[in-house]
Specification:
transferase, PTS_EIIB-like_sf, four-stranded parallel beta sheet, about 40% helix, PTS_EIIB_2/3, PTS_EIIB_2
């Protein structure tokens, strides 16, 4: 099972909302994955198959070893669905 880590600056509000939207997107796609959320600093030491978040935040995790999915609109379930579909 893939693990998706949703990342925001503080790991509280926006990443929690994105986590819920990712879970809705997965349900719509008929896919399953382990989904969790965290802050940017903690994400640097967390293991996950996919790191997802707003471009200005999650882009800071891109060291060439992580699969990074950036969102323009973190509230858009269609955008989450389209961007995750290629990686599940």
């Amino acid at each position: 099972m893939k693990k998706i880590m949703v990342v925001c600056g503080n790991g509280l509000g926006s990443s929690f909302i994105m986590e819920m939207n990712v879970k809705k997107a997965l349900t719509e796609m008929g896919k399953t994955a382990e989904v969790d959320h965290t802050d940017l600093t903690s994400a640097k030491t967390v293991q996950a198959d996919i790191f997802l978040g707003a471009a200005d935040i999650v882009g800071q995790l891109d060291d060439g070893s992580r699969l990074i999915v950036t969102l323009e609109n973190m509230m858009s379930i269609p955008e989450i669905t389209s961007k995750l579909a290629n990686h599940l």
